[in-house]
Amino acid sequence: MSRIFDRVMDAIDLETFLVCKDEEEGKKISMQIMNELGFNDISIVFIQHQGTGARVRIRGYIYKPGDHYGWLFEEKRIGG
């Protein structure tokens, strides 16, 4: 991941509407999107199929409790 993600407190959420036949396909597409964006630790926070697709909110975790948080060390890296 990019070093800019060191500034994120915990996770990044992506919300969108996906064209898909059902919720299951929506879940698969959601996971693929986040994987292609470089996230390995992913949760589907919300999914609701509506007609031609699904409204989804996907979370890609950068830090979880107990991780080595990049934002704790940001000042030291930039000389602050």
Provide tags for this entry.
alpha+beta, three-stranded antiparallel β-sheet, 3 strands, 22% helix, elongated
Secondary structure layout plus pairing:
Blueprint: E1 11-19, H1 23-36, E2 42-50, E3 53-61, H2 74-77
Written account of the structure:
- With 80 residues, the protein is α+β, with helices and mostly antiparallel strands.
- It is 22% helix and 34% strand.
- The chain has 2 helices and 3 strands.
- It has helices at 23-36, 74-77, and strands at residues 11-19, 42-50, 53-61.
- It has a 3-stranded antiparallel β-sheet with strand order 1-3-2, with helices on one face.
- Strand 2 and strand 3 form a beta hairpin.
- The two termini are 23 Å apart.
- The mean pLDDT is 87.
Overall mean pLDDT stands at 87
**Largest sheet, if any?**
3 strands, antiparallel
Beta-strand percent range: 25-35%
What is the helix content? Answer: 10-25%
> What is the C-alpha radius of gyration, as a whole number of Å?
16 Å
DSSP E strands, number: 3
The spatial strand order of the largest sheet comes to 1-3-2
- The geometry reads as elongated
Q: H/E series, N to C?
A: EHEEH
Write a brief structural summary.
This protein has 80 residues and is of the alpha+beta class.
